[in-house]
Amino acid sequence: MNNRTLFVLSIAAATSLVFGMAAFAGGNADKPLVWWNRQPSNSSTGELDMAALTWNDKTYYVGFDASQGAELQGQMIADYINENIDTIDRNGDGIIGYVLAIGDIGHNDSIARNLGVRKALGTGVEAGGEIDPSPAETNVDGSASVVQDGEIGGLTVRELASHEMKNASGATWDAATAGSIIGTWAASFGDQIDVVISNNDGMGMAMFHAWSQAEEVPTFGYDANSDAVAAIAEGYAGTISQRADVQAYLTLRVLRNAIDGVDPDTGIGIADEAGNVLSDTDYYYDEASRSYYALNLAVTSDNYEDFLDSTVVYAPVANQLSEEAAPVKNIWLDIYNASDNFLSSTYQPLLEKYDDLLNLNVAYIGGDGQTESNITNRLDNPDQYDAYAVNMVKTDNAASYTALLQ
Prior knowledge:
Layout: H1 3-29, E1 33-36, H2 50-53, E2 59-64, H3 66-83, E3 95-102, H4 108-121, E4 126-127, E5 130-131, E6 137-138, E7 150-152, E8 155-164, H5 175-189, E9 193-198, H6 201-215, E10 219-220, H7 226-231, E11 239-241, H8 244-260, E12 283-286, E13 291-294, E14 297-299, E15 329-335, H9 341-357, E16 360-366, H10 373-376, E17 387-390, H11 398-402
């Protein structure tokens, strides 16, 4: 073989490699992608990032109906106040004072929960046609501009204080910060605090253990984490199940269907070969935003025993798929904050059960809750995966992930 032949073969091999790599990269951009739990959106306005939600024809979002769940939380609290109107005003000043732990002022779920609480309790102030979700900070005298006094059962309802629970490193939804701040609020307001409200159970339980349990002050959270549900027997007043069992299934099922190229509704709205199927009381699909939303349920002293183990798979979708019909595939999935109580203690254990049932080999990546790069730096070889499931640190940052799939 002469040098000219070797040169031609080398050029051909190099050309083949380049085109092969290009095809592979293009293949990554075409692979199934699910945004989950944190919907791509503008953190200031809440406007959905449609470029991210329509990244390709196999891109979807999986979460829960934030507005419906927020309204349930607000109504649950209002109902509790009404039912205990004769005893809830601890110091008899005629004011039902509550404090509110806010998870992340730029997160749509946190915003919705603030709106739900303030709407139900009559403490919301309209700004631009919608209730203002901003933190009131300290409002013991009722003078804050972002909230107003409400009224239930002839008593005034006042948001004494609300604050974003962000730690010194920048992580939001921070339970330790909530546990510390409730001490500050208690020292400042004392028996003026009649109700403690939190955007999630992680922060709610921190405040419950740090102060409100001993003071017998009703505390409300969100997520129906197992520890919070169990604490209802010990005085925790209530929480909201965002149906993690349905969400976790949908997160992986949507990818399974997209990988297999089957009807996207397989095993969701229509039964699959194993009999898995959900009902319209479990979820709904919004075609315009390519989003699946689980429907929430209130958890109180009346029904908490049904929710004690939040990591049990949902029976209607707990049937094993055959490997012949659904061969094993590789999934890259991140959790924005490995320390988040709901995601690490409830959602991930459910995912790990469903991945077996759906024959998916999932690489779980835990972030620090602060920086996107802590996660994206570990998506350095996307071509080894068949699909991706992304849980962003900030909802604005979808492009940080899709850029790696170009």
